[in-house]
Amino acid sequence: MHIVVGRSGGVILITELDATGSPATPTFELPAVNFAQYVRARESASPRWVWDDTAAWYPELLRAGIRVERCHDLRLSHVILCNSAFTAESPLSQSGPHRWDEAAVAHVPAVPTGDTLFDFAAEPDTSSADADGDADSTDSRVEFQRQQQALLSSAETGRLRLLLAAESAGALIAAEMQFAGLPWRTDIHDALLTSELGPRVAYGTRPAKLEALAARIRSLLDNPTLNPDSQTEVLRALKRAGLPVRSTRAWELKEHSHPALVPLLEYKKLSRLLSANGWYWMDTWIVNGRFHPDYVPGGVVTGRWATKGGGALQLPKQVRRAVTADDGWTFVVADASQLEPRILAALSTDLAMADAGRGTDLYAGIVASGVVETRDHAKVAMLGAMYGATSGESGRLLPKLARAYPRALELTEAAARVGERGGVVTTRLGRSSPRPSEDWLRAQAYAYAPEASSADERMARSQAREWGRFTRNFVVQGSAAEWALCWMAQIRKALQKLDAGGAGGADRDPSQSPFSQSPHLVFFLHDEVVVHTPAALAPQVQQIIVDAATEAGRLLFGEFPVDFLLTVATVESYADAK
DNA sequence: TCTGCATGCAGC
DNA sequence: ACGCTGCATGCAGA
Hints:
By secondary structure, the chain is of the alpha+beta class. It has helices at residues 35-42, 54-63, 74-83, 91-94, 136-153, 157-180, 186-197, 208-220, 231-240, 250-253, 261-277, 279-285, 339-347, 351-356, 362-368, 375-387, 392-404, 406-420, 438-446, 454-501, 538-557, and strands at residues 2-8, 11-17, 28-31, 48-51, 70-73, 182-183, 286-287, 290-291, 295-296, 306-307, 329-336, 520-524, 528-534, 566-571. α3 packs antiparallel against α6, α17 crosses α18 and α20 crosses α21 (538-557). The chain starts with a strand and ends in a 7-residue tail after the last strand.
């Protein structure tokens, strides 16, 4: 059963649909204050909630202590269906742009408590799209019908249905992870910063260790006024010291040797720590011992998640020590080993490559098959195949890989050729790549014009290859993102079931947060998840995560025999994983 | 003074 | 001439 919900002024409009998709009852209104109770009551029937934007609806339910099992996020689904090659003929994807194509409405973050920093979180969202008073429940219902119709008219209904369900589950998970937050010990974080940088100082001033390094750099470069934070000044000073560098990138500096480079590299490392995850970041993002990352599901063209603010997807290993489980709780951390190569093997039904990864590290398996000499070579060559390397070590190793795994390599080559011609490629479940820009198309067309110079032709060729590398990678990265969504959705479902059988079940105290007593996802990083769980349940959680990986593989690739191996660890601190 | 772009680096 | 990002910072031009 589907229940379509929409807002109009101060009321919620609700349409319950039966199994055929037609209204089971007339649309009715509910005062906004009664909405959460309504959802709580209806949830027992396991409906799929249909709403415009999960981030605009779910946080308030979570604050009311309510979780929902499943939803259909119209905005995320709209983007997928409008672009998918599997629904290219549908009226939906041929219709012009409207409000469903707009960026997500500004939404309020889901934070459980009304702390100073996030006090605004409790205020209702007044910026939503129906400010003109239009009954957007109608809009949502119409849009839902259009999406259903596009889905059913597709030759790939099954894959797309799975993709929309997974994408929507991802939206629920993102909201739940933001609400629950990642346990974060500010005392440990502060001690770590103090030991690396020196005691805390006011914002905008240099901590002692940075100041000492700056002094050392100035003296070794014989430049008493040098500002080590200025790339231009540093570059000039290095050149004057006789170093043939063309940038101040760490990897380039490491290729040279000069006494000043030691403190300079150390300065850069620490200065990065301070500006990206220093005390200011801690004060901004840690609330009551929890980091509440602002995930954006579907935020990347390939289907990966993005973040806005907080940098959850760039959380450096340096600070993961501060991620510490609550007393009596623990983390189960799992990451998918060599996910993208395994995805590629399955996409291309390359049995030899799947064999290489069966029950073992896939790169080690490639070495064991005698394809290349070392694990590092196997890895570099695989990455080169998926990213489109043409030169260097990776480029040299590619022919060996192509001989051993022709099907896999042919898939990546074909994806690149499609992109070079300006075409569209599609992931396993049906997310299609964007079309190239007008500029790109113009440059390609112009390269054939009689008045085009050889520079024009070179430029066009270079841009064509660039777009080819993008589409080459899109298929693999995007399909891997789909696997990860299915994996997480399965984990979530199984954890909820585990919870229903235990202390957090039917007799749960509704005044408690839905996550305060039972295992739940707290972090996601492309191919890695973290579950925060009562310590006693960790073995069951591990099993759930492993089984979910197998199930995700089956959902995407059916019976094709590819393993999705995980590295799983039960740890008190995130820093101790892998 | 503000804004947009370039740089550099964190993650996968 | 190897893919996708977010974020902080400095710098140049408006």
